[in-house]
Amino acid sequence: MSQINKLKIFNDPIYGFITIPNALIYDLIQQPYFQRLRRISQMGLSYLVYPGANHTRFHHALGCMHLMQKAVEVLRFKGVSISSEEENALYIAILLHDIGHGPFSHAMEKSIVEDVHHEEISLLFMHQLNVEFNGQLNLAIQVFEGDYHRKFMLQLISSQMDMDRMDYLKRDSFYSGVAEGNVNSERLIQMMNVVDNVLVIEEKGIYSVEKFLMSRRLMYWQVYLHKTSLVAELILTRILKRAKELTLKGMTLPCSDPLLFFLQNKITLATFDTETLDLFSQLDDFDIISALKSWQRHDDFILSSLSKMIINRDLLKIKLTSEKVPVEDLQPLRERFASENDISIAETNFFIFKGKIKNQAYSKVQEPIRILKKDRTVEDVIESSDQLNLKSLSKSVTKHYICFPKQLLEINI
Prior knowledge:
By secondary structure, the chain is an alpha+beta fold. It has helices at residues 23-30, 32-35, 57-77, 84-95, 118-132, 138-144, 151-157, 163-176, 185-190, 206-224, 227-248, 257-264, 274-280, 285-295, 301-312, 331-341, 381-384, 388-392, and strands at residues 9-12, 16-19, 192-195, 198-202, 317-321, 353-359, 370-372, 378-380, 397-404. The strands form three sheets. A four-stranded mixed β-sheet has the order 3-4-7-8. Strands 5-9-6 form a three-stranded antiparallel β-sheet, covered by helices on one side. Strands 1-2 form a two-stranded antiparallel sheet. It is globular, with a radius of gyration of 23 Å. The relative contact order is 0.11.
C-alpha cells in the first residue's frame, strides 16, 4: 500500500515556494474546515474596486505559516530556545487564526451571526479539531488564548506587528495593485529578537517598522476603508439583516440550507454547539452570491433592490466628510425615497443611513512594538523613532459618511 507524501510544496506568488513542515500540518490543511477557506475571499467585496483582489483566506493562512517558519528560524539562530512542540504550536495557531471567518469576512458578524466574533468561532473550530486530532492542538490553543507563559509566542500570532499583519499587507498590496502596502516582511523578521520572553525589534530595524506602520495606514485608507468597498459591505450587511427579518416573519427565501439555518435562528456563543459549527463550516462566499442572484428577483422591494446593487455593482452613493452628519439632514431624503417607492420611513433606513470609520495605524493602548536599543534597553517604537509623523500615526482619525440612493443626488445635504 502506497503512503501519501505529506511534505508538499505550495507555489505562492508572494514568497515563492512554501513548504508544509510535517504530516500534522498537512492533515490540518486537508481537513474540510480548512479547505473551506479556499471559498472565503480575503478582502470581502474589495474586488468591486480592485478587480485583482480575488485571493482567499486559504492563501493568507499559508502565507502566515510561511512567515512563522522564517521567524522561528531567525529566533533560533539568535539563541532563543523554541522546542519542536512550541514550534508546531506556533504553526498550528497561525494557520488556524482566521478559520472562523464567515463569507465575505465581516459582513456576517454584523448581520446574521451578530453576537459571535470570528476569533471566537476560530477557537471553537480549534477545539473541535483538537478532539479530532486527539489533543495534538492543546499547546496551540493555549498559545492562541494567551495562556502560555512565553508571551512572545502570542505576539508572533496576534500583536501590532505579527505574522498576520505582515502577510495581509504584503498580499493585499500585491493583489489589489496598491504598491503602498508592500512591506518588507523579510527584513522585519530578520530584525526580531526576544528579551525576557517578550518580542522586540532590534534598533537597526526601526525604519522598517516605520515603513510597516505607514503602509498599514495607507492600506486602510486606500483599500480596506475605500468608500466603494465600505458601501458594498454596508449594503451586504443590510441585505442579510433584511433576509433574516423576512425569514423570522415566516417567509421562506431561496438559499442554501446552511444559510437558511442562520437566517432562521438567533445565534449566540452559548448556543454555538457542534451542529451549529458544522453548519457554519458549510457556509462560504458562494452561498451568499447564489442567494443574492435569487433574491434580486424577490417580491420584497428592499431585498431585491439591495441584492441587485451588489450583483450589478450599482451601489448607493456614499459621501465622506470630516464633520458629523446631523440626523435631521437625512429626513428630506427619507421622505422623498419613501414616497417614490411606497415604503415606510422606517424601511428607508436600509437605503439611507450614516456612520463613521476610524483609522489608527498604531495604538498606544495595545501591546507596544518594542525596540531593542544598542545598550540593551527596550522602549516603545514611538519613543525610539525620530519620525514626527509616527507619533501622528498613533492618533485615531475619524471620518463620517452618509449613504443614499443615487437618484436623490440633487437634494442638497
